[in-house]
Design brief:
single chain, about 525 residues, alpha/beta, Rossmann fold, 3 domains, 6-stranded mixed sheet
Length: about 525
């Protein structure tokens, strides 16, 4: 059954969806937590992410519309719009767009409306699914084909001359084809944020969304490719064969530790840069936010104690970025506690052991975090407690980035932290990768960089942080909004400059930044 429109006689298939990017909220919008079976659960404010359009038909007489509005309000819904569909025969049909707190809440609102006398629920549409109908991107020509001459130049016979030119000089493909401005967004669907291993078909809406953001924020043409294999060797082979079409590869939502090997091998083998956004994009934006947070509290990254919870690909990439930025003491925890030398560690954790925790601190997260200045979570919901935060150093900084539910409820943490950041769009200080990858690839493509090295990543982080002047940094404004159009331009310029200075650019005459 379609999840988009529900007839009144059917069940209400209101699907679960992840929160998308949005404007930064404020602490006044934080939800009220409540207890269930001993765990803390968040009940969020109604949000457009869970909005439904409910078509109602009822007698066109005084008082009915007021009863409908009152019923929606009593159910906790937030009306965003009311539109007349049809009036006639003494009846009126209207579409009510209502924001709910979550999936179940949307169902409750519709069920309550069904209890009203003389009111018929004609159908219910999920606005999120409507946005995805038919896909979210398309391919459009950049040159007109209106005449016989146009056709002969764009296709046969004129195209043959261009093909021969590229055959003689393969580098010409970067200027004579879409490669100069095109990125492949590639996934195997094995680790989709908040959803896990859902496979390539179910991962496609996420990859389409990524492609939209590339175009919207930096003018980069991106195409989603979901591979029907989760075999590491086959993924590498597939990307290798696709590479001649693109100017860069953005790997997305591939499970760890496979994603690390896939990225490293492809980056070494291909002539175009390969970037795993879940690792490095996250690390870049985390560093940007942390730099500004530390400025706000007057601490130095070289002197603070940083605890990272999550020893997977994202956690490891964050460690690498922090080390590049001159971090002092960094301790990484996994489910067992602080990562320390032990038998049977995989390659990733062996690297973590060699590059963190110089004092070989041991213990569970709750023990290790005592006295820490910074907590960065890329792990799971509700692993951090208020008591843990209270044991931290003065003016604690907490980045609880697990999505959709953070390591600690931000409302619970707020009275005990100086600066709080999450990965969610409905809280302040959202650590969102869209601040990084569009501008980063714009800069990479601009100078035809062969790889994305540490200098470029560090430059990207500094550029994001630098968008906010130091005097404008606030506790709830340490990172720019995802809609701040200055960000992509700043990141693009910084990355292209770093590529030139580090010797990986194949073009040194930078083109002006523009949206195509």
């Amino acid at each position: 059954m379609s999840h988009v429109v529900e007839n009144a006689s059917d069940g209400f298939p209101f699907p679960r969806v992840c929160l998308g990017a949005g404007l930064l909220g404020s602490f006044s919008r934080f939800a009220t937590p409540f207890k269930t079976t001993g765990a803390t659960t968040l009940m969020y404010e109604p949000a457009p992410t869970y909005a439904v359009t409910i078509r109602l038909r009822y007698p066109n007489i005084a008082g009915v519309a007021e009863r409908i509005t009152e019923s929606i309000g009593q159910a906790g819904g937030s009306i965003g719009g009311v539109d007349i569909v049809k009036v006639g025969d003494g009846m009126v049909s209207r579409d009510y767009t209502v924001s709910a707190k979550d999936v179940e809440h949307g169902t409750e609102i519709v069920d309550q409306l069904r209890q009203l006398d003389d009111v018929s629920v004609v159908n219910v549409s999920d606005r999120v699914f409507l946005m995805h109908l038919g896909g979210k991107i398309e391919v459009t020509p950049t040159k007109p084909v209106k005449t016989r001459d146009d056709l002969s130049m764009a296709y046969t016979p004129g195209v043959a001359r261009v093909c021969r030119s590229i055959a003689d000089d393969p580098d010409a493909s970067f200027s004579l084809t879409i490669r100069q401005n095109t990125v492949a967004v590639i996934s195997d669907g094995s680790a989709v944020l908040g959803l896990g291993n859902i496979g390539p078909r179910a991962a496609m809406p996420v990859m389409e969304g990524k492609a939209m953001l590339f175009k919207e924020f930096a003018g980069v043409d991106a195409f989603p490719i979901c591979l029907d294999t989760q075999d590491t060797e086959k993924v590498i082979e597939a990307v290798r064969h696709l590479a001649p079409t693109f100017g860069g590869i953005n790997l997305e939502d591939i499970s760890a530790p496979r994603c690390i090997e896939i990225e490293e091998r492809l980056d070494a083998e291909l002539e175009i840069p390969v970037f795993h956004d879940d690792q490095h994009g996250t690390a870049i934006v985390v560093l940007a936010g942390l730099q500004n947070a530390l400025k706000r509290v007057g601490k130095s990254i070289a002197k603070v104690r940083i605890v990272i919870n999550g020893a997977g690909s994202a956690g490891t990439a964050i460690v690498k970025m922090l080390n590049l930025a001159g971090a002092g003491e960094v301790i990484v925890c996994d489910r067992e506690g602080a990562v320390v030398p032990a038998d049977g560690l995989d390659k990733v954790k062996r690297w973590v052991v060699d590059n963190t925790n110089p004092n070989r601190v041991t213990g569970k997260l709750g023990e290790v975090i005592a006295g820490a200045d910074v907590f960065i979570g890329v792990s799971a919901a509700n692993v951090l407690t208020v008591q843990d935060i209270q044991a931290m150093a003065d003016q604690p900084i907490v980045f609880a980035l697990a999505n959709p539910d953070p390591e600690i409820d931000p409302r619970l943490a707020a009275p005990h932290v100086r600066i709080m950041a999450t990965g969610r769009s409905d809280f302040p200080n959202q650590i969102n990768n869209v601040l990084c990858f569009p501008g980063l690839f714009r800069g990479v493509l601009k100078v035809r960089a062969s790889t994305i090295n540490n200098q470029m990543k560090l430059a990207a982080a500094q550029a994001i942080a630098g968008v906010i002047p130091e005097q404008d940094i606030l506790d709830d404004y340490i990172i720019p909004s995802v809609f701040d159009r200055r960000v992509a331009r700043a990141v693009s310029d910084a990355v292209s400059t770093a590529a030139i200075e580090s010797g990986v650019a194949r073009r040194t005459s930078k083109q002006p930044y523009r949206i195509h």
